[in-house]
Amino acid sequence: MALFNYASKEITLKVVYYGPGLSGKTTNLQYLHEHLEEAKKNKLLSLATETDRTLFFDFLPMDLGTIGGFKIKFQLYTVPGQVRYDATRRLVLKGADAVVFVADSQRTMRDANLVSFENMKENLVANNLDPATVMLILQYNKRDLPEIMSIDDLNHDLNERNVPYIEAAAVSGRGVHETFEAVTKLLVEEATRKQKMYAQGRTAVTSTKQQPAAAADTKPQPAAAAVSFTKPQPAAGAPQPPIAPKPVSPPLHEQVHPESQWLSDVRHAVESHHAPPHTLDDFAVGTDIASVSRALAAHIRESRARDEEILRVLREIRDGLRR
After folding, report:
1. I want to staple 5 with a disulfide (CB 3.0 to 4.6 A). Which of 10, 48, 170, 195 is the partner?
2. Beta-carbon count within 10 A of 228 CB
3. Per-residue DSSP letters for 170-217?
């Protein structure tokens, strides 16, 4: 995906040239590297295998302007076309912003094109990229050779999404620049759209921040009409109702706190079930909640043990009766 470098003010876009072995992917990158201005490119790197090569280089065009103050830089990659290097192809495809599928127009390469195209979609999915929405350009290469497929046949096989396609003969450079210009144009448009959305989002977030309150209006407001509620007074000479004495609270040391009352209730509940004396002795340790909890737990364990013992005896009696 597009990488924003805020230190260097650059947006890096990754383009991967995909396709079957010997379809012209390497020729595309070599031709571009040879014909681009020296100031706009860096060294072409090549990772050679036994029968194929993976190429890579950065390209920094100077004439595309900026997007939101960011310069645009492209990373161009090819993938090895051989099936046995599928892991490398999947790795190179990771984070791609656009894919150029280079198809071999020769009739004998039809099956190879189809296999490579399906493999590309599988590797896109493996990299969390949607084959139905990823930016894609089709290049129908080797149009200068005999025994080639028609454009209609190639579109029928590969252009299920009706994406742009370009006829090419990469050996002579035909269609190479056109392919690259097509993909860069789409990428720049997409990056511009995302940058505008990002800027609008920042503006929206800023506008929702709490603004300082306006100065209070010091203009005096009319006072609201006072409403009084007067307690009715008894008629003159009428007997006065007796004044009820205020309840007297017990002294502080005699007041029963909720916690103490709860402990007393628990002790009474346990004693009413005729628990064994040694279980009640646990209450003598203290009257705090932890002591009560320990005593209750011990009582429950002993009750459960007695119940299990009774059940065991009942099972033995049942089994004896069955015999």
Report:
1. 10
2. 4
3. TTTTBTHHHHHHHHHHHHHHHHHHHHHHHHHHHHHHHHTSPPPPPPPP
Beta pairing partners, 73: 12
Indicate the average pLDDT of the chain: 74
Q: CA-to-CA distance for 4 and 71, rounded, in angstroms?
A: 10
CATH of domain 3-204: 3.40.50.300
Residue bearing the bigger pLDDT, 245 or 123? 123
27 vs 30: CA distance, rounded Å = 5
Closest CA to 58 of 26, 15, 99: 15
Contact 44, 55 (CB under 8 A): yes
Residue with tokens 């089709």: 138
Query: What confidence tier does 139 reach under pLDDT thresholds 50, 70, 90?
Result: very high
Alpha-carbon distance values, 319 to 83, 312, 316, 322, 323 (Å): 73, 11, 5, 5, 7
pLDDT value at 6 more than 80: no
Instruction: Using a cut of 0.70, tell me whether the model's pTM lies above it.
Output: no
β-pairing, 98-104 vs 10-18, is parallel
